[in-house]
Amino acid sequence: MFLSVKDLTKSFGDLTVLKNINLDIEKGKIVTIIGPSGSGKTTLLRCFNALETPDQGIFSFDDGMTVDFSKKLTTKETIALRRKSGMVFQSYNLFPHKTALENVTEGPLIVQKRPKKEVLELAKSLLTKVGLEDKMDLYPHQLSGGQQQRVGIARALAIQPKLMLFDEPTSALDPELVGEVLKVIKDLANEGWTMVIVTHELKFAYEISDEILFIDGGHIIEQGPPEEVLNAPKKERTKQFLKRVLEY
For burial by CB atoms within 10 Å, which of 18, 114, 119, 179 has the most? Predict the structure, then answer.
């Protein structure tokens, strides 16, 4: 088991967004989170990377690291948690004044203080991996949305994480650009990366996932293999959600 999550709860003021979430993520598996807007799925993803700090809950990792969110996280614990995962955002979040190559090298060079020669070689290989070997010196405004998102994926990979997190990676893209990003994610899946993906692309979720979580109102309503959750859901709320989404 790569990560075990116990009793994770998160509130914003009086609004409880996540309620006693329990989840196990196996190494090399892909967990996809689906659900309506406002259900808590993005907040859950951001908790994995300490972009949001839960009010309570325990993370237990396979390397022996344990994080208890009922106690205030130290800076050291926050950094250690963030180093375990790479985050790909729906709005790319690239530095506009830096080239594709500079965007990818920023984290390893500035944050992780790794040797420049090593980082440059890695960044070039990652940009080649996502099909941007001829776009390394271009700035974000010179790239399409799909290309920018692929830079974002290369940037997340560059910190050499154990876990890849994707927050609706195709939601900001024009329909014809979605496929090029999904292909890169599928390639990573075939390489055995451990991934958690928030997406509204149900066909993609069905094809790529080992497990699907349906979240609503801050609760995991249903979870299981894609053929069960998407094709034969047990819970009435899951059936309602899928009926609406598929009709649309």
Answer: 18
CA distance readout (Å), 15 to 10, 38, 40, 144, 240: 9, 11, 11, 37, 24
Which residue spans within the chain are E strands per DSSP?
3-12, 15-25, 30-34, 56-61, 66-68, 85-88, 163-167, 194-198, 211-216, 219-224
Q: What is the distance between the alpha carbons of residues 217 and 36, in angstroms, rounded to a whole number?
A: 9
**Whole-number Å distance between alpha carbons of 155 and 141:** 17
Q: Which two tokens stand for residue 63?
A: 């390397």
Tell me how many degrees the CA angle 19-74-162 measures, rounded to the nearest 5.
Answer: 70
Q: With a threshold of 0.90, does the pTM exceed it? A: yes
Q: Which residues pair with 16 in a beta bridge?
A: 11
Neighbours of 143 (CB within 10 A): 19
pLDDT in tens, 54-87: 999 999 999 999 999 999 989 989 988 988 999 9
Can you say whether residue 88 is alpha, beta or left, with left for phi > 0 and alpha for psi between -120 and 50 degrees?
beta
What's the Cα-to-Cα distance from 218 to each of 8, 15, 77, rounded to whole Å?
Answer: 10, 10, 25
Q: Which amino acid is at 93?
A: N
The per-residue pLDDT for range 224-233, each reduced to its tens digit, is 999 999 999 9
Beta carbons of 62 and 27 less than 8 angstroms apart:
yes
